[in-house]
Amino acid sequence: EKWPEGPGAESFESLSADALEGDDAEAQSMTISTEYLNSLRISGMPPHKLTLRRGMPIMLLRNLRSDLCNGTRLIFERTMGNRILIAKLPGSDEEIAIPRIKLSPLNDGTFPFEWSRRQFPVVLAFSVSINKSQGQTMECVGINALDPCFTHGQCYVAASRVGDKSKVRFLIDWVPGAGRGFVTRNTVYSEVLAPDEPG
Q1: What is the C-alpha separation between 28 and 36, in angstroms, rounded?
Q2: pLDDT in tens, 90-118
Q3: Dihedral (C-alpha) 124, 128, 131, 137: value to the nearest 10 degrees?
Q4: Model pTM?
Q5: What are phi and psi of 102, to 5 degrees?
Q6: How many degrees, rounded to 5, is the angle at CA 146 between CA 171 and CA 165?
Q7: Do the beta carbons of residue 52 and residue 82 sit within 8 Å?
Q8: What angle do CA 79, 82, 85 make, to 5 degrees?
Q9: Which ranges constitute the DSSP H helices of the chain?
Q10: Rounded to whole angstroms, how far apart are CA atoms 110 and 14?
Q11: Rounded to an integer, what is the distance from CA 34 to the centroid of its chain?
């Protein structure tokens, strides 16, 4: 699909408002700059600079309602000012309004300070992890299996996102001399599949 051209096809750019939080915020602001907070990229948080264009796939990072939860893939449509982002579920005409909200990373000791980021709770989703793809239906899937799946059922979850096996492609290593050509390891816990022994 080609990107839209002409008026209205410009990129939309949103810069986050990052701030220190907590009782020590004022004292810590002397040594921790806003620019440093802007540079932080951590899992589960949107980037400081979010650049979108109509038709781009995005993924929610927070639960907004029961049918719009963390990991839901959407298609970016447009914005309403700089506070509301409009997106659609793939294959749907329903417009979804996503507000710009205040997000805080988990307080797991990674940072010796508390901070927050006000941004749209989305990231670009041209690719997603196998776990984030679970439960979703896609037109076609490319699976990077250079590193094998690490837990039971992941290979199945990845390959079953589409109904037609001709729409699934794996990127895997050639194993010379193995006699099997291209291979990847499918992790299976046989104890899960074995029938219960009579007790």
Answers
A1: 12
A2: 888 999 999 999 999 887 778 888 899 99
A3: 100
A4: 0.70
A5: -90, 125
A6: 35
A7: no
A8: 35
A9: 25-28, 34-39, 130-133, 154-159, 190-193
A10: 26
A11: 25
